[in-house]
Amino acid sequence: MNKGKSFREGVQAAMPTALGYISIGLACGIIAAPYLNPLEMGLMSFLVYAGSAQFAMLSLIAVQASVVDIALTVFLINLRLGLLSLHASTIFRKETIWQNIGLGSLLTDETYGVLMGERVHQDYISPSWMHGNNVISYLAWALGTVIGTILGGLLPNPENFGLDFALVGMFVGIFASQFYAMLHRIKLKKLLTILLVVGFTFFILTMFVSKSLAVLFATLIGCTVGVMIND
């Protein structure tokens, strides 16, 4: 029976992501410093654990938005993670429901990217490996945000440094790496077709719905097109 790679190997695979999370977490914490103390930032990171949503939360807190507005915004931004978890669960379909809940609860865009990269080279991926991938990233993010909040009090007007763009930069890097890996399995023409469909759909939908919903629906349509043109 193939036991797959261990928790430790999952941690090793996620180290680039974890280091990136620390740096982005520092940026997030620095931006949060005028509005939250380190304990509050730590609780946000442990309970919400969503970089883009936390940056959005800080913007809403800064303008004193209502709790309902903040909760709805976070919900919409994180809807895409339901899709990622749904696909990830197909890789662990033989595991228990509790294993899948645990894996899905800490899944992020970046840990999903690491998983897909591993999937290119491994037919079987163990839950232990995935837990290692998830947990080290989770702890690194929380640590980075707390330290960033502590340091943030030393910087006047931290938003002027454009630190909130750090998450976008990391996502671009993950996407580029994943795109390169997929080229070994999927024809370039198909990949470009899917990307064009997603991009065009997103552009059209933003005229009618919020950007968060546009991302969700554009992703669903892209997945549908990918299945339809698959050999």
From TrEMBL:
Is Membrane among the key words of this record?
yes
Membrane-protein topology: Multi-pass membrane protein
Is this entry keyworded Ion transport? no
Transmembrane region positions? 12-35, 55-77, 135-155, 161-183, 190-208, 214-230
> Domain of life of the organism in this record?
Bacteria
Where is it localised? Cell membrane
Q: What's the name of the protein?
A: Branched-chain amino acid permease
Print the organism lineage.
Bacteria, Bacillati, Bacillota, Bacilli, Lactobacillales
